């Protein structure tokens, strides 16, 4: 896989900035000392960089601090000054089933929204993630078709305020690119721009959905593909197969449905259940209620939204730089992201 190889090689050619940037405190410890120490900080936060090819978090782009000592509306978590939280008070567990005939059609179970971005080569979004590579390997090796079942417990949406400030390290890297541009150092401009992509990814997360999700993936060589005309029935059997592993009452299903479920299960070549978030690891026989109740103790991002990295390099975020230079820095970073996509 060529992901990040060329960028990593370039990073070895030159040393980092001669003036190291210190790690500024975000005052979280001080905030805890003056508030209820039993209140944990919300860990699912926007403002970080994101590699939209590999679906990986990268360096922090937007600065965070805890000077205002904010908490979520329900008082359960401390949150940074730069974000606001929408609490989804209704208790809803969403369940969905789908058939994925080709790994090229696969959408991330935790990054669907940002993978839909069309700023670059959208067909490549998420295609170098572990999730997609696993599906590709099994589908190609076994000539199989995939069914996937999601169960999502959606609790918060966390968004960045529009008047944010940039992280000092990210801002310093952008200013180094600006300096190279103003001194007509074309090769150094390309290098610094590619290093920024290596450090901060291709996009910046501005909104995250926090909660927990269970995902089951089943692969079958012939059963699903032979019954694509009865897609709703196949998806129903995939759902029943998932809930059959939970303490979930399906005994009321009629004999025909039970027979169909057994046929479905007997044709599974590979099956995987993943638990993202939740205080209790998934195990066969866990009740859906117990899993749902445990999610508040271990929230994770179950979807992400954001914008390309170069959108955050503008005259509002860099008012001390000449406007033409800021525009050139944004273009240089955008072109570095395009090269990153094309090399893969």
UniProtKB/TrEMBL annotation:
<keyword id="KW-1133">Transmembrane helix</keyword>
<keyword id="KW-0399">Innate immunity</keyword>
<comment type="function">
    <text>Pore-forming protein involved in both innate and adaptive immunity. Plays a central role in antigen cross-presentation in dendritic cells by forming a pore in antigen-containing compartments, thereby promoting delivery of antigens for cross-presentation. Also involved in innate immune response following bacterial infection; shows antibacterial activity against a wide spectrum of Gram-positive, Gram-negative and acid-fast bacteria.</text>
</comment>
<keyword id="KW-1134">Transmembrane beta strand</keyword>
<dbReference type="InterPro" id="IPR039707">
    <property type="entry name" value="MPEG1"/>
</dbReference>
<keyword id="KW-1015">Disulfide bond</keyword>
<keyword id="KW-0832">Ubl conjugation</keyword>
<keyword id="KW-0812">Transmembrane</keyword>
<dbReference type="GO" id="GO:0002250">
    <property type="term" value="P:adaptive immune response"/>
</dbReference>
<dbReference type="GO" id="GO:0042742">
    <property type="term" value="P:defense response to bacterium"/>
</dbReference>
<keyword id="KW-1064">Adaptive immunity</keyword>
<feature type="signal peptide">
    <location>
        <begin position="1"/>
        <end position="18"/>
    </location>
</feature>
<protein>
    <recommendedName>
        <fullName>Macrophage-expressed gene 1 protein</fullName>
    </recommendedName>
</protein>
<comment type="similarity">
    <text>Belongs to the MPEG1 family.</text>
</comment>
<dbReference type="InterPro" id="IPR020864">
    <property type="entry name" value="MACPF"/>
</dbReference>
<dbReference type="GO" id="GO:0030670">
    <property type="term" value="C:phagocytic vesicle membrane"/>
</dbReference>
<keyword id="KW-0732">Signal</keyword>
<feature type="domain" description="MACPF">
    <location>
        <begin position="27"/>
        <end position="344"/>
    </location>
</feature>
<dbReference type="Pfam" id="PF01823">
    <property type="entry name" value="MACPF"/>
</dbReference>
<keyword id="KW-0968">Cytoplasmic vesicle</keyword>
<dbReference type="GO" id="GO:0045087">
    <property type="term" value="P:innate immune response"/>
</dbReference>
<comment type="function">
    <text>Pore-forming protein that plays a central role in antigen cross-presentation in dendritic cells by mediating delivery of antigens for cross-presentation. Dendritic cells bridge innate and adaptive immunity by capturing exogenous antigens on MHC class-I molecules and presenting them to naive CD8(+) T-cells. Acts by forming a pore in antigen-containing compartments, promoting the release of antigens into the cytosol, enabling generation of MHCI:peptide complexes and T-cell priming.</text>
</comment>
<keyword id="KW-0472">Membrane</keyword>
<keyword id="KW-0391">Immunity</keyword>
<keyword id="KW-0325">Glycoprotein</keyword>
